[in-house]
């Protein structure tokens, strides 16, 4: 049986064997993020700029509760 490659959360680096991951695309690149790190992507995307290969700031989503 061929060995499957694992995917890892771009924020916390946990593998899909440990926590469910969600696929995302940004600027033509694929990445993975876990549900526990999803709020970072939504509220503080600037923290993930280098891991996403962003060259310009990624604005946070506007929220009515802020």
Structure description:
The protein is α+β, with helices and mostly antiparallel strands and 66 residues long. 15% of the residues lie in helices and 18% in strands. Strands 1-2 form a two-stranded antiparallel ribbon. The longest helix has 6 residues, at 38-43. It is globular, with a radius of gyration of 13 Å. The termini are far apart. The mean pLDDT is 85.
H/E series: EEHH
Q: Characterize the overall form.
A: globular
Overall pLDDT score? 85
Main beta sheet strand tally, sense and closure: 2 strands, antiparallel
Question: Tags for this entry?
Answer:
2 strands; 2 helices; alpha+beta; globular; 66 residues; two-stranded antiparallel ribbon
Question: How would you briefly describe this protein structure?
Answer:
Helices cover 15% and strands 18% of the residues.
Ordered list of secondary-structure elements with their pairings:
Elements lengths: L20 E6 L2 E6 L3 H6 L5 H4 L14
